[in-house]
Design brief:
single chain, about 180 residues, alpha+beta, four-stranded antiparallel β-sheet, two-stranded antiparallel ribbon, 4 helices, about 20% strand, rod-shaped, binds benzylamine
């Protein structure tokens, strides 16, 4: 091949390597490869998990804490006002050692989310020691003003005990709604 031919061949090859058509095809190849990889990227689906909880479902599942006797939301405490004896060395229905239950009480009606039935609940104060101070809980469902003493929970029911110091409150089931 003569030098002139060699020169033209070399320069046309070099030109072909740098032409816009090659650049365009290269970029197009990268875009296509990239778009094929997009579905493989991780996706945050947390928003879908939230959307899956429809408002109606909340009524079907019991309220958080409604089954825990040390939680103020425990279903039996619907009309309680005081310190939970379950946080004071006793249980939801028994006084802590060294205290005694008030013979007079206030009464509430609470619905058990477990079986959907209404229960008559007696709220007794446990007396004979100073205030426990743990797990204060003040729920007043269907509470009546103080002129109806038996329906009001804002009273120290230890007043009838020999030692009228108030310590904590328990909830004792007295009866259940018949089906
Ligand atoms: N029945 C609970 C209570 C005790 C003392 C004062 C108010 C309420």
């Amino acid at each position: 091949m003569n030098p002139i031919d060699r020169f033209f061949e070399k320069s046309s090859r070099s030109l072909a390597q740098r032409t816009a058509r090659r650049g365009f095809l290269g970029v197009l190849g990268q875009v296509l490869t990239g778009s094929l990889l997009i579905p493989l990227l991780p996706i945050d689906r947390m928003s879908r998990a939230d959307a899956a909880t429809v408002p109606g479902d909340k009524a079907a599942s019991p309220k958080a804490g409604s089954n825990d006797p040390q939680n103020c939301e425990y279903w039996k405490y619907c009309a309680i006002d005081g310190f939970l004896c379950s946080c004071c060395g006793g249980s939801s229905h028994s006084c802590p050692p060294g205290t005694s239950a008030s013979p007079i009480t206030w009464i509430g009606t609470c619905q058990n989310p477990g079986d959907g039935r209404d229960y008559i609940v007696s709220y007794n104060d446990c007396c004979g020691k100073t205030s426990c101070g743990n797990c204060e809980c003040n729920r007043n469902e269907r509470e009546k003003p103080l002129y109806r003493l038996s329906r009001n929970n804002d009273v120290n029911w230890c007043m009838a005990n020999s030692d009228s110091n108030y310590h904590c409150s328990v909830s004792v089931i007295l009866g259940v709604q018949q089906k």
